[in-house]
Hints:
Elements: H1 2-22, E1 25-27, E2 33-35, E3 39-40, E4 48-53, E5 59-62, E6 72-75, E7 84-88, E8 91-94, E9 101-104, E10 109-112, E11 129-131, E12 137-141, E13 147-149, E14 159-161, E15 169-174
Amino acid sequence: MNGLKGNRRLAAAGATLMLAAAMLVTAAPAGATTVAGAQPAATTATSIFYVKNANSGRCLTSDQLTAYYNSVYTANCVNAGSQRWRIVGGQFQTQGGTGYCLDTDNVEIFTWACFGPDYYPGSVPYQRWLVDSTEKKWVKNQAMQFCMHSFGGAGEYVVPRTCGNTASRWIFVAA
């Protein structure tokens, strides 16, 4: 009987967590959608955003080659798939040709094949990003605890840095 009670408690806890995760996307002023909460970024499959550098307004852009290092930079927003990001469970997946996810190794931020919990589960936190609820957001890596950083110049690579600088702030605009 105690085993059954424990299973029910686990099931109830899991349902509560799923409900909380589903509530991470909130409406922003003027009908724009934004990512909220210091939790992994939005969890719905329809959460597609332009992620703009708060300093310059330039878009987070993914190189669409399979070579991955130095493959994430800021560029003028041109409505390209490489500038649209599907955000699911804290993973930022480019909507460009490769469909890769934002990843890091503590030296660089790049794109790499997306990991799921059944595929290299130890690597999943390197592809998970926490987003705060302010208008100009910190985007912090779950594993390494640093923020995406770029002064926003055209073609400037996005790099890992300690959170706290305005160059580590991003604005999310529904695509």
